[in-house]
Amino acid sequence: MHGPYAVWWLLVALCAIVLAIFPQLVDWVALKLGVTYPPTLILVLAISMILVRMLTMDMALTRKESKIRRLTQKVAMLEDVMNKGK
Known about the structure:
mainly alpha
């Protein structure tokens, strides 16, 4: 697993561990934010994190597809030059 992906999953695991050790933390944050049912806060944050992760993955995939397309075009041009030289 590459560095940025590993860091992401380590942060998720760290958050889960902190919430498991200090469950009252969720109640405190929910109270400060005005959320009446604290477990809802966990779900909203989890869904938000998933959406952010999906967006970053889509952006990375788009960049990689663009690079692959350019490399394919360069290889095709090189093959054309090599075939003309024969």
